[in-house]
Amino acid sequence: MNEEIIIAGFGGQGVLSLGKILCYAGIVQGKEVTWMPSYGPEMRGGTANVTVIISDERISSPILSKFDTAIILNQQSMDKFEKDVKPGGHLIYDGNGITRHPERTDINIYRVDAAAEAARMETNKTFNMIVLGGFLKVKPIVELQNAVEGLKKSLPERYQHLVPVNEKAIYRGTKIIKKISKARAEA
Amino acid sequence: MGELRLMKGNEAIAEAAIRSGADGYFGYPITPQSEVIEHLAAQKPEERTGMTLLQAESEIAAINMVYGAAGCGKKVMTSSSSPGISLKQEGITYIAGAELPCLILNVVRGGPGLGTIQPSQSDYFQSVKGGGHGDYHLIVLAPSSVQEMYDFVELGFDLAFKYRNPTMILSDGAIGQMMEKVEIGEQKPRLTEEQIKEKYPWATTGKTKDREKNVITSLELEPEKMEQFNRKLIEKYRKIEENEVRYEEIQCEDAEYLMVAYGTSARICQKSVQIARNEGLKVGLLRPITLFPFPRKRINELADQVKGMLSVEMSSGQMVEDVRLAVNGKVPVEYYGRMGGIVPSTEEALKDLKQKIIGGK
């Protein structure tokens, strides 16, 4: 197994921490992991993205131009990364604020309306964990309980009380993700 | 197996410094390596091991604090990124001239000048050919993963003390900023004053009646003595070249074409090799781990086996010169690289290999 993922959205959406929790989950499950953020002036402009690689083998390049899965959380990221999903790969997006929905027919498209769901939960800070749950439903590369372990490991002591609500959010994400379209082999 | 953590390269360096039993870190923040001092500050090393952590008033102050502490036999380090490392060069050549051990981390960003904050390898010449003035060399280690960032702190200190020579860890913004799984080692105790006196009789630990005074200096006004000292240094560098060359070979056994790359570029080329192999092309990768001493003997041997080599770098073509010297005209050696904080892609590196090496020649 070698899964190459881009997670992209606004700064503050928890894009980087979503990647971090996924990596910790990978470590708990005995995988090799790499987390490569975009850093520098780009972050201050508002968009944030991180490349996450989870693999059974030693990981080669941390910097990629094509991805098995793109998790897209705003329109700018859709414009930037839809084209970078490998044919037959997966695109998962939150419909909130999306004005141009994905158009490719050679990839699998899923929608997880995490922002709307988070607003319905006790705290809307669970947004990124709903997305994580959705991703793991589509790509069960790590077990859900290991994702919860990863969450515990990446939260500092003072936030450990937030584990149960986030755990609930991960499971919620697995329930609300919807398949929009299946990849069609190009003629 | 030790404890596994998810860490940035910069954090791994800081944690390794504490756990290696270092006595002090002196530095000044600069992107993309500020997490080194941030992690140290958060960890309160003065409480964990008694290690000194000091944010100096400038890079120049920091390297001179390293100079002073190293002269006392202390295990000390500094870190910076390219423009800051340039500021430190005077101190570094003095430390090399005084034959003192220390560790210097450069998390390279694009230059020249203030340049950019994105990853680069354009400080290769500065690191392996001197950097400051005078005939000297640093021992230069080039990590290509976060685990190696961690491991090379202890290795770097060990080599520095073994040869009484500054060691540089030459990293880049990508390895500094990315997170990977790191196996953390045990906490090593710091040396006591007594142990330092015993292990390092050259250190300025306070003159006692039973020994001559120790003088730490790089000044020698008599040219004959200076030349003698230069010869002694050259002899030391020759020993280092004999004993400390480190490199990794990836699918070189049957390779017909060779990529040579270090650090982040080596990670990129590792994937290029995978793709090439899937296409049936016999491509291998030689990854120098020590840039000084450079694995020139091994590269020369491989030149008898392969049809050509491509040096892939995030610079305008610096290491390629050392590869050419090693190959000595046996086979064509070409360069591919990106600059200014742009990281070459796996695909473009492979495309260039096909065009320049596999294609015509």
Provide structural commentary.
The complex is a heterodimer of chains A (187) and B (361). The radius of gyration of chain A is 15 Å and the shape is globular. Chain A contains 7 helices and 7 strands, in the order E-H-E-H-E-E-H-E-E-H-H-H-H-E. Chain A has a single domain (2-94, 106-181), classed as Pyruvate-ferredoxin oxidoreductase, PFOR, domain III (Pyruvate-ferredoxin Oxidoreductase, domain 3, 3-Layer(aba) Sandwich), CATH 3.40.920. Chain A is 37% helix and 25% strand. Chain A has helices at residues 15-28, 41-44, 75-81, 114-120, 127-138, 144-154, 163-176; strands at 2-10, 32-37, 47-55, 67-72, 85-93, 108-111, 178-181. The longest helix of chain A has 14 residues, at 15-28. The model of chain A has no long low-confidence stretch (mean pLDDT 93). Chain A is an alpha/beta fold. Chain A starts with a strand and ends in a 6-residue tail after the last strand. With 361 residues, chain B is an alpha/beta fold. Chain B has 14 helices and 14 strands. The N and C termini of chain B lie far apart (48 Å). The chains are: A alpha/beta (187), B alpha/beta (361). The A-B interface holds A 20, 23-24, 27, 32-37, 39-41, 59-65, 153-154 and B 4, 6, 31-32, 116-118, 173-174, 177-181, 264, 267-268, 270-271, 274, 343, 345-347.
Helix-strand layout with pairing:
The complex is a heterodimer of chains A (187) and B (361).
Chain A: E1 2-10, H1 15-28, E2 32-37, H2 41-44, E3 47-55, E4 67-72, H3 75-81, E5 85-93, E6 108-111, H4 114-120, H5 127-138, H6 144-154, H7 163-176, E7 178-181
Helix pairs in contact in A: 1-5, 1-6, 4-5, 5-7, 6-7
Chain B: E1 3-8, H1 9-19, E2 24-27, H2 34-43, H3 45-48, E3 52-55, H4 59-71, E4 76-80, H5 82-97, E5 102-108, H6 124-128, E6 139-141, H7 146-163, E7 166-172, H8 173-177, E8 179-184, H9 193-199, H10 223-243, E9 247-250, E10 257-260, H11 263-278, E11 283-288, E12 290-292, H12 296-303, E13 308-313, H13 319-327, E14 333-337, H14 346-359
Parallel strand pairs in B: 2-3, 2-4, 4-5, 5-7, 6-7, 10-11, 10-13, 13-14
Antiparallel strand pairs in B: 1-8, 6-12, 9-11
